[in-house]
Amino acid sequence: MNKKLVAALSGGAVVLMALSGCGGDDSETKTNDWAKKVCDQVQPQLTKIADANTSIQQATSDSSKPADVQKTDSAAFQSISDAYKSLGTAVNGAGAPPVVDGEQTQQEAVKELNATSASYAGLKQKVDALDTKDQASFADGLKGVADELDKLSKNGDQALQKLQSGDVGKAMAKQPGCQKPTPSGGGAAAPAGESAS
């Protein structure tokens, strides 16, 4: 019942994985300094998101009870929401990137990251409100959450893509903090009660 949710989450992760960039050469010190300032704060958030996605996948593969799935998904959405908010703070704190329209690009990216954070917080509230005592109702509600998540993963990454284009994108791609993380096992996003069997 949660497979669509997992698929949608995978799509959402792709949006953020764009932060891992696509390689390239750039020797401008200012651009590299800006990228380092952002990327040093990005890695923990990317890991948090990857761990949250893993916890949702584990809850699905374990054929967990609705109450357990709800608890895991709720914690995961909260974690993802927090991560996007922290990313917005990181981009905001780094100042405008040293490129044409840098200030506008930065402001749009921050606005987008904060909006994504709010959207995940909204998904958490919806999951929290689902009736876990009625399996069919819960499955229907979860499908609705997955549909919203799917839309969220397909929309709203234009500002981030702009932020990661050109010289700034090349500089970000070279920073270790903006490299795609490996999930640490999912424990961070799923509090007590979630054990793989």
Automatic annotation (TrEMBL):
Regions of compositional bias (Polar residues) in chain numbering: 53-64
Annotated segments matching region Disordered: 53-72, 166-197
Entry protein name: Small secreted protein
Species whose genome carries this gene: Streptomyces hebeiensis
Lineage, uppermost ranks: Bacteria, Bacillati, Actinomycetota, Actinomycetes, Kitasatosporales
